[in-house]
Amino acid sequence: MRLASGLVLFAYVATHLLNHAFGLVSLATAEAARLWFVGFWRSAPIGALLYAAFIVHIALACAALYERRTLRMPKLEWARLLLGLSIPFLLAAHYTGTQIAGELYGQDDPYARVAWSLWSRDRGLMPLLLTVAAWAHGCFGVHLVLRHRPWYRRQFHFVFAAACLLPALGLLGFVAMAREITLRMADPAWYATQIAGVEVVTGMQKAVLDWITDGLYAGFALLLGTLVAARAWRERRERRSGASVELRYPDTVVRVPRGWSVLEASRAHGIPHLSLCGGRARCSTCRVRLEGPADHCPPPSAIEQRTLKRIGAPAGVRLACQLRPTGDLRVTPLLPASGAPAGRQTHFGAVLGEERQLVILFIDLRRWTGLAQQQLPFDLVYVLEQYFEAVGDAVLDAGGVPNQFIGDSVMAIFGLECSQSDACRQALQAARGIATRLDTLGARLLAEFGLTLDFGIGIHAGRAAVGAVGYHDTRTLSAVGDAVNTASRLQELTKALQVRLVISEPVARGAGIATAGLAAQDVRIRGRTGLLRVYAIATPQELHAPVT
Ligand code: FES
Q1: C-alpha distances in Å from residue 198, one per residue of 39, 77, 116
Q2: Is the shortest distance between the CB of 284 and ligand 1 below 6 Å?
Q3: CB of 277 closer than 6 angstroms to any ligand 1 atom
Q4: What is the pTM of this model?
Q5: 250-300 pLDDT, tens per residue?
């Protein structure tokens, strides 16, 4: 409900900004668009929906703030919270001057009058602050919800550009209207009909509107004050009663007031604890195994039950973000909170912009689409991260560069800083390392998610151009050319041949491996002339024979 109500408000702000942006065309165009805008948002059902969304959103945000036992949270969430809290205060005067004035006294709010009144008061500073706060709050909220979705990550730059462009156009439209009005003010007839003529609110009515504005300020301040006081009162009561629970983690023991969730306890004590959905029971990455008296764990709520059922959680496993223990417990987080490997870099700057002999490795997960339909999106993100980490580590350990992670595929480059034969050996070593790591990961994912992990790898050696491809700051190292296309086709061939690894003759020759016992065949590769001899290998670990 918080998300749905937030989206309604976000749509309102977006269309409002769009309406302002028409001011860049002309005041008359913006005014014509405003009639559509007002006709839609002030119609009875949509208006009711908008008010309901506003009330529900604020109420749920306050409830969530009260529920939080600790205010430790990521910076982005803090920014979203502070921006959200500032909106009612920035909005109050604008709201009474337009909406309330219209409803109580029948005053219309055409752009000519409203833009001029805002511009002449403070050059539009308040609308600027209000626009930035409301829009940024909405954008942060949407980003926090979508940030782990693969399609969103892929399209992020477009989304980011749109998120910057719309308020910029809206504000420029507002300034353009203010300038147009300033020029037209020289015409007394225009001023009389467009500005002075529509100002129907009397001095007394203005005083009433100011009084309402002050009431709104006071109401919001009271709401916030009550919230802070309620939190303080609860904390004091909990401290006085001495009611606390002891949570025994594998490496440490912490004591927290009763009523805290296990995830809050972890965060408050700096214990690494994975929580991809931010504690909303929408993933299962915070899951913990519990030992202790059953009556120390209140039964799971409906939403927690649903997630536990979906992942087939055994008895004794709960979501740390939802469980608020009433007594001492032993707690074991089940998923490691490790991030991507840090500080591992390669120095390939010297080879950018060259065409050269390289060895390319492609790996792809099998049946990923089917798996993706069965799992929770946040869990998939976690699985993908673990998979990328395993592949990336194996490639780096072998001396290659993992440089493209697309969907469930990874491309790695070998030979940027070594000879072709070394690169071939490195690529085969990476394939063995990947297989070993993914076997270990697969066993874990089978136990944790019921997922069976399988993959196919293709390796080819040939010419390719290396360069920094992308746009502005998003340039990444990439390779293009025959070696890349062929390695990708060999990876696809693993499906047809039902093996995990297919390597080409140049790779086998470069690495100096004995090929006598390998299943060889000559295949035609799309986009290539002639046949290519390839070796199909059931699993990369078969290649542990000493390199000749
Ligand atoms: S953090 Fe996602 S379910 Fe707990």
Answers
A1: 19, 43, 12
A2: yes
A3: yes
A4: 0.52
A5: 888 998 888 889 998 998 888 888 877 767 787 777 889 898 888 899 999
